[in-house]
Amino acid sequence: MINQFRNLNPVNLILLVVIAFVLRIGVLLQLPDHLDFSLFEPYAGILIQLPEDLFSPFSNIFYSTVIILLQAMVLNRIVNSYNLLGKPSFLPALMYVTVSAMLEPFVVLNPVLIANFLILWMIEKFFSIYRRESVLPVLFDLGMITALGTLIYFPFIGMMPLLWVSLVIFRPFNWREWVAGLVGFIAVVFFLCTIYYLTDSLGGFVNILPRVTRFRTGFHVNLYDYIVLIPVAVILILSVFTLQQKFYRSNVHVRKSYFILIFLVLFTIVSFNITREYNIHHFLLAMPPLAILMAHFFTSSTKRWFYESLYLILAAFIIYFQFV
């Protein structure tokens, strides 16, 4: 399977669709009676409102899978365009489709899944910073993208410091570039406040804003539900080792790009503490960088029996724990 996706073969598109639905077979065969879906945070509901029962449980899973496949193809194009793996392949798409099926909250429509389109957009813009003479428009766009993501899912605001981290990694200091992202963010917030003002709802806007919580110190979770993460953890550890071995042999842009991906994962973990609610689907924000890191291992690994077996174990864990 992995060997097939190491090549940029159009047939892999069909295989990717089949794998995406196979990895969700347990959820599809045990559909709940009802699944809620909301596109925007309550404070952004003035822009558009969708009924919570808009989709049936089956259509909810189906459209979620279609979105995952679209995002996988976008991620694959970005990785191949910037040559992060050394050669073009379909492995980033395969890894994204796989890790997005790890847990049941990942496979249903949720705001984080929609916000991942913006994460992919941000990743591509981050990678493009290194090759540009002027990045003011890029930083302004990134600020607006972050604000749009915050309208969909409030903890997305935790991506804002990533704009400045990218400047530290890719650019010499220029205060205008540091301000540009903030201006872009404020522009979207100002637009939203203007709509509330014109509809005489500005007072209500303040009341429905989410409240930031203290850093969580403990969770009440059933660890049995997360055994499926063990193969993923093994692959990521192996990926770190392979990345370290080739790190200084890669060009400067590739090395800095991987730093951005690592910081994206870190900021996803930190932003989990922004809201009071415990939503495991929050970690879908980390799926694009994790998929790239996993793809790096499967690209670099030379023992076919090992990497093929490791992927089959991961797929088996995902399907098994959907049934139990």
UniProtKB/TrEMBL annotation:
Instruction: Give yes or no: UniProt keyword Transmembrane.
Output: yes
Q: Which residues cross the membrane?
A: 12-31, 61-79, 91-123, 143-166, 178-199, 223-244, 256-274, 280-298, 305-323
Please give the Pfam families that the UniProt record associates with this protein.
DUF6427
Which keywords, in A-to-Z order, does the entry hold? Membrane, Monooxygenase, Oxidoreductase, Transmembrane, Transmembrane helix
Q: Which domain of life is it from?
A: Bacteria
Task: Give one GO term, molecular function aspect.
Answer: monooxygenase activity
Query: What is the designated name of this protein?
Result: Beta-carotene 15,15'-monooxygenase
Organism of origin is Pararcticibacter amylolyticus
Phylogenetic classification of the source organism? Bacteria, Pseudomonadati, Bacteroidota, Sphingobacteriia, Sphingobacteriales
